[in-house]
Amino acid sequence: MPPKQQISKAAKAAAAMAGGKKSKKKWSKKSHKDKAAHAVILDQEKLDRILKEVPTYRYISVSVMVDRLKLGGSLARVALRDLEKRGIIKPVSKHSTQQIYTRAAAE
């Protein structure tokens, strides 16, 4: 084994200073879910779609309307109350946090 080479104190100090220049660890590397762009204003196109599609659903709730029609939750609640008033859907369970409806023509 050949003898080690002597390194000067200045070279050792430079090597020690250079060793700590590593980049900082990035903690968040997972993918993030995109923010949903749900409608918050009811225009005629959305109203027509609600009147056409929702009465065909067997299970109707706020979450179903948000998922399928890309509506905001408050808009879906208003639409459900309006559809019930028109007699298009009928309530199955009306709790303060979750209203469940079904189509009026169902047995």
UniProtKB/TrEMBL annotation:
Region (Disordered): 1-35
GO annotations of cellular component type: ribonucleoprotein complex; ribosome
Cited Pfam families: Ribosomal_S25
Keyword Signal included in the entry's annotation: no
Keyword annotations from UniProtKB, A to Z: Ribonucleoprotein, Ribosomal protein
Low complexity: bias regions: 8-20
Keyword Acyltransferase: no
Classification via Gene3D superfamilies: 3.30.63.20
Positions with biased composition (Basic residues): 21-35
PANTHER family named among the record's database cross-references: 40S RIBOSOMAL PROTEIN S25
Protein family per UniProt: Belongs to the eukaryotic ribosomal protein eS25 family.
Protein name: 40S ribosomal protein S25
Species for this entry: Maudiozyma barnettii
